[in-house]
Specification:
The structure is a homodimer of 284-residue chains.
Chain A lengths: L2 E3 L2 H13 L4 E6 L5 H13 L2 E6 L19 H11 L3 E3 L3 H4 L6 E5 L7 H4 L3 H16 L3 E5 L3 H13 L5 E5 L19 H22 L5 H13 L4 E9 L15 E9 L2 E9 L3
Parallel strand pairs in A: 1-4, 2-3, 2-6, 3-4, 6-7
Antiparallel strand pairs in A: 8-9, 9-10
């Protein structure tokens, strides 16, 4: 039976009890409103550990002042049901006042990897993410933690902070889960009208096209980016925020030639909804 | 028998082994060159836990470009001897390349408490301290950790970061240990010539004088600070960096009147050596 825990001392007690019994703890931090992407992370955590904790916390410090903190979709009852079916042991759902007291003032920043891509458009986002993930890791003290590759830059930021701060946690990246037509699953897809939903497909289509181009030998980053831009812009409700093409290890853009494995990452507004997607193309 | 450990995986293994046996781990992070102040922290850690780890790491990231990183005194053999006599179990002495790899980029900052006092004169100091202490805590995973009150601002910064980042560690502040004549013990006292050593006494003398004044009813911060300044400046080799008088909880200066408990904290250059000292005066 899944258990919902709202308070830090209570979850600490459960975790300490598990640890003293030698259980391996897996952790999936989320903002809730689960879709198949989240559930795949939970299944992976379950496969790799004895006990699974999933946190649901819509973290205010990772939203900018004009972003969608207030309207971010929530449905905790449905979330609990879905997590239970996957075999999650604990849902940890603290409130914001518990996570951030009025004198809160400690921040974790991952300097280089937080720049570029989403970092350029959401200036304090990764500071908020790195800080809340550090807090959640210190509360849950997992042995492993699973993150989706859709938030690819976030995954790199978290891998780096765990390494740099010597946290004894293994970070596991898990592949993007897509709808049948290819749209990357996201809680924010719920914002899309049906016309917007059609336009949203442009992200995946352009990524697949880029993959084909590169696999057929195209080595000019500029050309690939141009073709991606053309595809996306052929959908009238889209507005491109960025198209990144570069090194999947350190997020350095490729300027002249594609010689090594490539990350292509996109952020595109479809109407009033900001969507991201990415693909990694292996160069053999 | 004390054991010296230089590598992170080795200390992790020892700690994991201790934890699995239910031992309570106490930790004293230091920069080495032990004096009685350090030893009193170790004794306190020993009193409060089953196993004691002392780290010796002269952390480059907490020194400014023109500070004394290179000449900071070191004597690891003597340190090991002294720690052994106190009953320390492990000296953890990593080298800097192990603590900071070339891609290191994650920093912990405690924003408000790192400002004012030493923070104004050593702009990146507390960022370096907060970051290395977070790293050491994640490596050693202590139940308790003991810090000296001589570095009073540092103690507040660390208490705050542990609270804000939800680290399951109790931070214990331990009183300043002084030479017979009152000079606060510091590894940096070794820099002082005998003339400078006499001048260095001005810090403690001015603090005691301030305490007497306040206990006799003086409630003007300005007057107390003036008298401190006069005493210190009567010693020709001194140069005052700051005299702080304010709230020991949040480091807010008292401007108008002393009504609550007072922290007086000083930083004074004596020749080329920067010394700090402080006192807390309880207002009943």
């Amino acid at each position: 039976m899944i258990k919902v825990v709202n308070h830090i001392p209570e979850i600490r007690e459960i975790i300490n009890n598990w640890k003293s019994q030698g259980f391996k703890v897996g952790f999936v931090p989320t903002m809730g409103y689960f879709h198949e992407g989240h559930l795949s992370l939970m299944r992976e955590a379950k496969r790799l550990s004895d006990k699974v904790v999933v946190s649901i916390f819509v973290n205010p410090t990772q939203f900018g002042p004009n972003e969608d903190l207030d309207k971010y979709p929530r449905d905790i009852k449905r979330d609990i049901d879905l997590a239970q079916k996957v075999g999650v042991d604990i849902i940890f759902a603290p409130d914001a006042t518990q996570m951030y007291d009025p004198d809160f003032q400690t921040w974790v920043t991952v300097e280089k990897l937080s720049q570029g891509l989403c970092g350029d458009f959401r200036p304090r986002h990764f500071k908020g993410v790195a800080t809340v993930v550090t807090k959640l890791f210190n509360i849950v003290q997992p042995d492993i933690s699973v993150f989706g590759q859709k938030d690819y830059q976030q995954l790199l930021v978290i891998k780096r902070l765990v390494k740099d701060l010597n946290m004894p946690i293994e970070i596991i990246g898990h592949p993007i889960v897509r709808e049948k037509d290819g749209l990357a699953m996201s809680s924010r897809n719920t914002y899309l009208s049906s016309k917007e939903r059609e336009n949203a497909l442009s992200l995946y289509k352009s990524l697949i096209h880029a993959k084909n181009l590169i696999e057929q030998g195209e080595s000019s980053p500029e050309k690939v980016i141009d073709e991606i831009r053309n595809i996306i812009e052929s959908y009238p409700l889209t507005r491109i925020e960025y198209i990144f093409l570069g090194d999947p290890e350190n997020l350095a853009p490729y300027h002249k030639q594609i010689k090594k494995d490539v990350l292509i990452a996109l952020a595109v507004w479809v109407g009033n909804t900001r969507l991201i997607d990415n693909i990694i193309i292996k160069i053999s």
